[in-house]
Structure formats: C-alpha cells, structure tokens
Amino acid sequence: MTGRLEGKRAVITGGASGLGAAMAQMFAAEGAQVALTDLNLEGAQAMAAKINAEFQGAACAFAHNVASEESWIEVVKQADEAMGGFNILVNNAGIGSMGSVEDESFKNWKKVMAVDADSVFLGCKYALGVMKHHGPGSIINISSIAGLYAAGNMSAYNAAKAAVWLLSKSVALHCASQNYDIRSNSIHPVFIKTPILFDMGKVLDAGSDEELMNKLSRGIPLRRIGEPDDIAYAAVYLASDESKFVTGIELKIDGGMSAQ
Ligand SMILES: NC(=O)c1ccc[n+]([C@@H]2O[C@H](COP(=O)([O-])OP(=O)(O)OC[C@H]3O[C@@H](n4cnc5c(N)ncnc54)[C@H](O)[C@@H]3O)[C@@H](O)[C@H]2O)c1
Questions:
Q1: Is 210 found in the same domain as 120?
Q2: Protein residue with least CA distance to atom 19, ligand 1
Q3: Over its length of 260 residues, how does the chain's per-residue pLDDT go in tens digits?
Q4: Could you tell me the CATH number of the domain that includes residue 170?
Q5: Domain check: are 115 and 242 in the same one?
Q6: What is the pTM of this model?
Q7: Distance 199 CA to ligand 1 centre (A)
Q8: Residue 78 and residue 179 in one domain
Q9: CB 3.0 to 4.6 Å from 184: which of 128, 133, 172, 206, for a disulfide?
Q10: Which own/partner pairs from 174-177 qualify as long-range (CB within 8 Å, at least 24 positions apart)?
Q11: Is the CB of 142 inside a 6 Å radius of any atom of ligand 1?
Q12: Residue 196 and residue 61: Cα distance in Å, rounded?
C-alpha cells in the first residue's frame, strides 16, 4: 500500500473479528502500529499474528472488556507502554440487539448500552490522557446507520448508536476547545458482511445467510450489502492526516440508503 498511516499508532477495539479485524489489517498495511483489543483474546492474538506475519512487529493484542472502566484503564496503560503512546483510537467493539420497546428486557437494554455506548465514553475519556501528548490524533467511533434512523424492533441498539453519534461531536468540540489537535468523528455503516449481521439475521429468522443478504440488499440503492473493507477504507482516511480539517462529522457508508 502507500504508507498513508506511517508513524501512526492505533488502538482498535473489537479487533478479533469483522470490521475491527479489517481495519487493523488495512491500518498495518498503510504503515501503522496497531493494538487489537477484544473480549476474545485468542481471536485478537490470532489476528495480530496474521498481521505480524506480513508486517513484522506491527501488531499486539490485549484482553479487553470495553464495558468495564477498570479494563479500559488497564488497556490504555498496556497500549501506551507497548507502542510508546498512541494517537488513533477506534471504538469499534459492539453487540447487536433486536427488540421493540415492549419486547426488550431492561437487563438486555443495560447490556447493550454498556457495550455499545458506555464503551465509547470510557474509551474517549481514558485514551485522551495519552493521545493529547502524541498528536495529531484521531478518534473514530463506529456507530451505525441505526444510530441515525430508527426501526421499531431495535430500541436498545438505536438508542446506544445514537448516543455514539452525538458523543463523537461533543468529544470533537472538547478537543478543539482544548487545542489538543485531536479530531473525533463517527462512521455509520449499513449492513456489512460480518458475524454480527448474521447473528441478528438468525434472531429475525431470515433463513440462510445468502437469503438474508438478498433480502437486506433489496432495501439498498446499490443493491448489495457492504464488505468490511468498505469501512476500513473510510477509517484509513479519518485516521490519516488527509482528514486534518475533518472533525465532528458523521460519515454514512450505506450504499445510498439514507439518500432515499
Ligand atoms: N456488520 C454490520 O452490519 C454493522 C453495521 C453497522 C454497525 N456495525 C458496528 O460495527 C462494529 C463492529 O461490528 P462487526 O460487524 O465487526 O461485528 P463482529 O461481531 O464481527 O465483531 C465485534 C467484535 O467486538 C467484540 N466484542 C463484543 N463485546 C465486547 C466487549 N464487551 N469488549 C470487547 N470486545 C467485545 C467481539 O468479540 C467481536 O470480536 C459494532 O460496533 C457494530 O455495532 C456493524
């Protein structure tokens, strides 16, 4: 690739799978060092090993529960020590959830809010302590098109992803007001081919993965669902200094869905 992230050091949550793994691989290919964190430590280590086989010493992996304040404090310390500071944070780890306001249990609501929204608050809060000494920096929060447009059967997920959307702007304005040289933006994917999508499809009883993809693509003007790399390309742009005047935006990657 072309060294667009040469010298950058990134923490990517949820790096074991799906979008996190795709972003970690593309960031390393563009010259960045990456710390992959995940509840699934084995998966994060396997992905780091895959990256290191091609780009020696580019990746490390840490166990992380993004919903836990203690875990964030520990991971920020570990990544700081392993990479000599860092300047990119990708808050990507998340879980899906289907359920209307009547069907959703309060217990699951709190779990979704913790993993999908508290995680981003905690990540920004603790990572800034390191990032402000290693600018220019970039925070990339993975929300969803479901953080901007509601569905009757996605109450908790809608609410959590909407929180990520506006929190990203609050962080952007705070960093600007403090002259940190750190930008903060959110990415809003529509359906992307990763395990989370197929898990949600099973809850909907949507048939085989193939049938689910066909069904979902009918609602998208480009008539297909996305690939993890569609998100990774956008994240490389937001992580790089090419986007140095871009902060507080919501980048929709949705095959035209929100244009309708
Ligand atoms: N795939 C899609 O269609 C889609 C669309 C819009 C938004 N998103 C968002 O993209 C992000 C990545 O999802 P994905 O599609 O790659 O799904 P995925 O299930 O493939 O990956 C999610 C990763 O997060 C990890 N994780 C889950 N809970 C965690 C926790 N508490 N602490 C640390 N790690 C945890 C999982 O182990 C997994 O590796 C999520 O925030 C998701 O909401 C995905």
A1: no
A2: 196
A3: 789 999 999 999 999 999 999 999 999 999 999 999 999 999 999 999 999 999 999 999 999 999 999 999 999 999 999 999 999 999 999 999 999 999 999 999 999 999 999 999 999 999 999 999 999 999 999 999 999 999 999 999 999 999 999 999 999 999 999 999 999 999 999 999 999 888 888 877 778 989 999 999 999 999 999 999 999 999 999 999 999 999 999 999 999 999 99
A4: 3.40.50.720
A5: yes
A6: 0.98
A7: 11
A8: yes
A9: 172
A10: 175/128, 175/139, 175/247, 176/247
A11: yes
A12: 21
